[in-house]
Amino acid sequence: xxxxxxxxxxxxxxxxxxxxxxxxxxxxxxxxxxxxxxxxxxxxxxxxxxxxxxxxxxxxxxxxxxxxxxxxxxxxxxxxxxxxxxxxxxxxxxxxxxxxxxxxxxxxxxxxxxxxxxxxxxxxxxxxxxxxxxxxxxxxxxxxxxxxxxxxxxxxxxxxxxxxxxxxxxxxxxxxxxxxxxxxxxxxxxxxxxxxxxxxxxxxxxxxxxxxxxxxxxxxxxxxxxxxxxxxxxxxxxxxxxxxxxxxxxxxxxxxxxxx
Length: 260
Description:
Blueprint: E1 2-5, H1 8-22, E2 27-32, E3 36-42, E4 48-55, E5 61-63, E6 71-75, H2 76-83, E7 90-95, E8 102-109, E9 119-124, E10 142-147, H3 148-158, E11 164-169, E12 173-180, E13 183-190, E14 196-199, E15 206-211, H4 212-219, E16 227-232, E17 238-245, E18 248-254
Antiparallel strand pairs: 1-5, 1-7, 2-3, 2-6, 3-4, 4-18, 7-8, 8-9, 10-14, 10-16, 11-12, 11-15, 12-13, 16-17, 17-18
Helix pairs in contact: 1-2
């Protein structure tokens, strides 16, 4: 199995993706299907599930060989450490054969650029069994998209007042609230300031609660996409969506908290 990434913004996105996953779990399984790479898993507290699909066309090259193991398990901390050792002029190569104990990671430098060097890593794989969850189709009652930098800034500010976010949606506004012993912060976002917004006609309003720590540390990232999609429904996990381009996506599902 061999995949390469040459484009600068895709290298940055790939590194950012594993930075986010490192914050969620210490180990995960990566499956290399015939036409896409697939990752699914849960955070250490089993509150947040992530579901990632990157199509073969997203990579500069994606070569799957008969007899190669379909999936490998990695230590996310060491994997991200290696991912972060790239420079602007490196090409990323991930490679393994058969049923491996190690994966080779190469950062290959541009031969026309002086002062940089190839970096070759041989990373030990983990022996961990994990099952995939079947994610049901859900008709969400409210959905919206917003600029990733704006919502990241808002989430960071909300954590100054509490660790739980109350979100309310109606036909005119999305309201985000955080409160604690030091007071309360409320952010009113007009639907006109959202890239996309929809709410079911029979739902006058939604009133839900989610853990801010999980949202900020494990779900919200500005480098995966310029826009982040949010989907809500009573008694369902919140879905957070990143469009990675070329039919690829990164999804997070965060369980709600009770309001008591």
